[in-house]
């Protein structure tokens, strides 16, 4: 539940810190004093949109923080743990808005997104505004409210998700079944291209190897001649060759006297050169023996290269791109052929998805029928006590011709305000005053089953007075017994029912206006109840009436 709120420089609030208890907390005050400012500030902590106008005039920023005791709410613990947000006993939500309109959000002191703030806030507080009855005119809101009351929200979500799955499969199946002739022509073209490229069967690096081998085979005769010529220069020529010349040089140098160190080095190098020349000549002879002209192999290579170049030209790509082209053609062809072959499989999946959808929707319908009767009965009991004793409230589940994302039925609230009249949609027959009462009755009923710890009712008693107002106050007090209720009100009968009473007043000082909040006790509370009863001029009679109202509440 909400344990405290701190507001700084928000609207006409300069600085405000309040602590709260369990039960029903009443907030009252004169018109324009800022009774709803606390609700607005709390709404920002729960992720509502805002702008720079909320920052108090002359200040740089507005700062609002709300602290919640979450010990008894494990689903909130779980939500925080899943996002690695540290927590102990409390969850602290904070919102800072600059005068430029920039906004920052925090959960337990760590920056967060506005959507995170809104999500965790939805587990902690539910705000019912004075215009809440307007949403009751929309069938979608009525359906959601019924599902929430019957604890069918998760089941309804599953139906919606399964409906999306089924629709996607159905559309995919339809697209497959209505393939155009252009796609058929595409398959034929790709099949021909794939067959041609498969027959070519080009390997990675093959072109380079073929070109190198072609160059080698084309130049064998020239290579043989040059190898013969080189070996002749080294050792085979009768007219003088490198080896015979080296022999002569070695003989001449060997006869030099005296033999010095430099001469020995020269002789050693010439001997090494002679050996290397002889070995080089042997290698050339061996190389010549390996060279053999192969015109058939050369012809095969040239034909293979010609096929490769021709195929590349036909497909308007480089020869090296034929391998990747084959892969892409096969993938695209496989996709088209696979889609063609998968129509039956897709049809089976679509049928299975529809069966699952109808099963979920049927279960949802059965549970809605049970929940709608219970909700309608309880709401009817409440609105009888709110001055509509002859009203009959129904929730209609109109079957649809086919299943939708919301199930097999259309939900709509129906009301018969007077005996003998047929029930008609709420949006058509209820007056503004009736709508306010019906809305309040529904909110009170649904609040009893809500798992949200803190409920805020912001002037939901507009248009109600007298004995009915006292009934409203008792309703709200009873809701507060199971958790925490805040009620902004202008009715004494409602205010008297509160376990805690806060009064909002406006203070003008040094040409600046600020809003103040004080906790009322005993005589001060009686005076505020009297003010609500009789206006600014308090009489002993209105004070006595106020004390009597408070005393009666204590006796309940």
Automatic annotation (TrEMBL):
Residues 336-367 form a coiled coil. Keywords: ATP-binding, Coiled coil, DNA damage, DNA repair, Nucleotide-binding. The keyword DNA damage applies. InterPro entries: DNA_recomb/repair_RecN, P-loop_NTPase, RecF/RecN/SMC_N. It comes from the Bacteria. Residues 1-506 form the RecF/RecN/SMC N-terminal domain. Pfam families: SMC_N (PF02463). May be involved in recombinational repair of damaged DNA. Belongs to the RecN family. This is DNA repair protein RecN. It comes from Marinomonas foliarum. The gene is recN.
């Amino acid at each position: 539940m909400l344990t405290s709120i701190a507001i700084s420089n928000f609207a006409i609030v300069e600085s405000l810190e309040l602590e709260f208890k369990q039960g029903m907390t009443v907030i009252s005050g004169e018109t324009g004093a800022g009774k709803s400012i606390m609700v607005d500030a709390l709404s920002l902590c729960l992720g509502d949109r805002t702008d720079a106008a909320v920052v108090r005039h002359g200040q740089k920023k507005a700062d609002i923080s709300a602290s919640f005791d979450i010990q008894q709410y494990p689903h909130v613990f779980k939500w925080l743990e899943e996002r690695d947000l540290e927590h102990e006993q409390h969850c602290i939500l904070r919102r800072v808005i600059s005068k430029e309109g920039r906004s920052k959000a925090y959960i337990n002191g760590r920056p967060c997104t506005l959507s995170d703030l809104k999500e965790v806030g939805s587990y902690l507080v539910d705000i019912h505004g004075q215009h809440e009855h307007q949403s009751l005119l929309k069938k979608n809101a009525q359906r959601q409210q019924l599902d929430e009351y019957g604890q069918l929200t998760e089941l309804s979500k599953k139906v919606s998700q399964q409906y999306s799955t089924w629709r996607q499969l159905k559309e995919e199946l339809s697209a497959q079944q209505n393939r155009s002739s252009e796609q058929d022509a595409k398959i034929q073209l790709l099949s021909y291209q794939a067959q041609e490229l498969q027959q070519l069967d080009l390997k990675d690096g093959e072109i380079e190897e073929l070109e190198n081998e072609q160059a080698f085979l084309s130049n064998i005769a020239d290579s043989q001649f040059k190898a013969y010529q080189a070996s002749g220069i080294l050792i085979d020529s009768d007219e003088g060759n490198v080896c015979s010349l080296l022999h002569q040089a070695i003989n001449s140098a060997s006869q030099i006297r005296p033999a010095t160190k430099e001469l020995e080095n020269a002789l050693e190098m010439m001997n090494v050169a002679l050996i290397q020349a002889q070995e080089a000549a042997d290698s050339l002879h061996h190389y010549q023996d390996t060279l053999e002209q192969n015109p058939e192999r050369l012809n095969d290579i040239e034909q293979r290269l010609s096929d490769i170049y021709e195929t590349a030209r036909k497909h308007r790509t480089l020869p090296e791109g034929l391998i990747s082209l084959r892969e892409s053609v096969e993938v695209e062809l496989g996709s088209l052929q696979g889609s063609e072959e998968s129509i039956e499989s897709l049809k089976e999946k679509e049928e299975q998805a529809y069966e699952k959808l109808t099963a979920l929707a049927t279960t949802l319908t059965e549970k809605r029928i049970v929940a709608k009767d219970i909700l309608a009965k309880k709401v009817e009991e409440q609105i009888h006590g709110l001055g509509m004793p002859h009203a009959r409230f129904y929730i209609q589940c109109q079957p649809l011709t086919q299943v939708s994302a919301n199930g097999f039925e259309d939900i709509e609230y129906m009301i018969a305000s007077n005996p003998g009249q047929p029930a008609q949609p709420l949006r058509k027959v209820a007056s503004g005053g009736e709508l306010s009462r019906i809305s309040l009755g529904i909110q009170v009923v649904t609040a009893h089953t809500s798992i949200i710890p803190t409920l805020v009712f912001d002037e939901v008693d507009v248009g109600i007075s007298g004995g009915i107002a006292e009934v409203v106050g008792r309703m709200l007090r009873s809701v507060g017994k199971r958790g925490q209720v805040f009620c902004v009100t202008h009715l004494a009968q409602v205010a008297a029912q509160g376990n805690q009473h806060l009064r909002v007043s406006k203070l003008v000082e040094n040409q600046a206006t600020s809003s103040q909040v004080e906790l009322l006790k005993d005589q001060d509370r009686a005076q505020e109840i009297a003010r609500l009863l009789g206006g600014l001029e308090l009489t002993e009679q209105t004070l006595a009436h106020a004390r009597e109202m408070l005393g009666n509440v204590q006796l309940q």
